[in-house]
Amino acid sequence: MGEQLRLLAVHAHPDDESSKGAATMAKYAAEGVDVLVATCTGGERGSVLNPKLDRPEVWENIATIRRDEMKRAREILGVRQAWLGFVDSGYPEGDPLPPLPEGCFGLQPVEKAAEPLVQLIREFRPHVVTTYEEDGGYPHPDHVMCHKVSVAAFDAAGDPDQYPGTGEPWQPLKLYYQMGFTLPRFRAVHEAMLAAGLESPYGDWLKNWDASKDKGHRVTTRVPCGEFFEVRDDALRAHATQVDPDGFWFRVPLSIQREAWPTEDYELARCLVERREPEDDLFAGVRESVCA
Ligand SMILES: [Zn+2]
Question: Which residues surround ligand 1, an ion (CB under 5 A)?
Answer without folding.
Answer: 12-13, 16
